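Recap from last week: sequence in, structure out.
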Amino acid sequence: MCGIAGIIYRNGGGEHRVGADMTAMLQAMKHRGPDSTGYALYRPAAENYVMHVKLAESNGEVDFDLEGRLRRQREEVQSRLRAMGAEASAVDSTTDHAMTVTFDFDGDLKQLADYVEDVRGTEVLSLGRALEIVKDLGDANTVAADYKLNDYIGTHAIGHARMATESDVDIANAHPYWAYPFPDVAVVHNGQLTNYHMWRRRLERLGHRFQSDCDSEIIAVYLAERMAQGDSLEDSMRRSLDELDGVFTYLCVTEDALGVAKDELGAKPLVLYESDDIVALASEEIAIRKVIDREIETYDPYEGEVMVWTR
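Predicted structure tokens:
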């Protein structure tokens, strides 16, 4: 079932309460996915990188040494960043089981992320100059309160309210997915890919690794790989409709764009509102009405359609 949402502002230079707006949209669709909530939030690109790191599952096993183990993980992550030449300017323990590091770096991002993920129990959730992915168990209001997302000011975002149907209720299987190791590319999706295993093998042969068994991650890496080969976001998404099989609607975000694609059957719902100031999309119209304070007209993009907006 699940619920997806996206929003991009076309004015203001990034001074928008995108965290609060995305929370309102996702909370309105809590009935579609109460198990976990995730955000991919964007600010105007900065000189430094921001890395979000999961240290443990929020509902994981608790033992007598949990506090000490998490402290050692935080220290090891910082040590490995220094060893790779990444100079941290800020370290924030956002929750007991997650941390955010801001740093300057001019080396290989994949090597850096791989080295950090070699710390036992650690997973890099996102890495980029503009992108920050936050996801955890609970509804949108719960996650937003835990990570102080209502204070987040930015330019655009996507989000996901998840109902676990085929995998565990944990952070590892929560959306959105970062296109590891490509910076600033993320995806949320509602549906299912039927040629998931074929594309996973193909992308692994190209040297990509995956952090989950979720087909949404395949979409993210597929699109980022196409863009790395020189395709635009829109061209990459159009190509995906020919090469990715299944019933799906997905949203993709980059540093300065938001796109939507629906498969040729168009069975997974999505409602769109567009004006000169804002574009908002969601699985249900009620979510869009939480952030637009006037009467609006919405419509459902056609099957086989790709649309992209830039800020």
